Amino acid sequence: MGVHRVIDGDTLVLADGRHVRFIGIDAMELGHDGSADQPYAAAARDRLKQLIEDHGGKLRLETDSEAYDEHGRMLAYLFAGGEDLGLTLIREGLAVVVAVPPDLAQLGCYAEAEARARASHLGIWSKDSPLVTAAADAPLGAGTFLIVHGRITRASHTRAGDHLLLDGHLPLWIPAADLSWFGSDPAGWQGRQGLVRGWLRVYRGTPELDVHAPAALLAWP
Questions:
Q1: DSSP class per residue in 112-132
Q2: What's the confidence (pLDDT) of residue 143?
Q3: CA–CA distance, 175 with 55 (Å, rounded to integer)
Q4: Which of 27, 106, 109, 165 is spaced 20 to 30 A from 205 at the CA atom?
Q5: How far is residue 107's CA from residue 173's CA, in Å, rounded to a whole number?
Q6: In order along the chain (221 residues), what is the average pLDDT of each group of 10 residues?
Q7: 0.85 exceeded by the pTM?
Q8: Residue 217's CB: how many other CB atoms inside 10 A?
Q9: Is residue 10 located within the same domain as residue 118?
């Protein structure tokens, strides 16, 4: 499968015109309408271009449970010359794991690779990275992708799911349908330090971050 254009570190356009969004990863956003690029956004895009060129510009796509996202983009894992390109970006600290059920086929492999990148302080996980912030300092704008750490100061379990509060500032929501992915009920995390990532949304006028799988809520030293 040929490539027409690499848009950013997790999205590209195939030669036949289809837009493809990588499953299981998120790269930082390039600037639009005069806004600045997020850190590591250009590096992820350029590295993806290089990986594709190194393998002759040909890709193999593998789908998971869902064929398209809400924007009409095809969802796939992308391989070139047998190399999982999303996995490579995670290993090098140029993308982070995102887990959205039911598309979790590569979650275990991706999560292990990210853990090694975090331990080695690569890219996004570098010690001076501005992308990993304290929850108390996080901007709570709808649609913002956050990587934050803090103490879970409140946690409760309901029939609809779990409500958690990070550093008394950032509400987290885990739907009941996704609790089965966790080895234990996250409501028991009260008082623990956690690392959370995901997109903010506004629910009944209050910003909150939805958590759908264990890779999005990790113990934080």
A1: HHHHHHHHTT-GGGSTT-TTE
A2: 84
A3: 41
A4: 27
A5: 20
A6: 94 96 96 86 98 94 93 95 97 96 94 97 96 91 90 95 94 94 90 94 90 92 78
A7: yes
A8: 25
A9: yes
Same domain, 104 and 8: yes
Q: H-helix or E-strand containing 85?
A: helix 85-91
Contacts of 7 (CB under 8 A, 6+ apart): 13, 19, 45
Cβ-count burial of 142 within 10 angstroms (0-12 exposed, 13-18 middle, 19+ buried)?
exposed
Contact 124, 148 (CB under 8 A): no
Nearest to 193 by CA among 150, 129, 131, 132: 150
Q: How far is CA 31 from CA 35, 40, 126, 129, 135, in A?
A: 5, 12, 21, 18, 24
- What is the residue whose two structure tokens read 């930082």? 28
Instruction: Supply 168's token pair.
Output: 């008394």
| Domains contained in the chain, number | 2
Looking at residue 204, its pLDDT comes to 86
The residue range of the domain holding 67 is 3-125
Lookup: tokens for 12: 């590209």
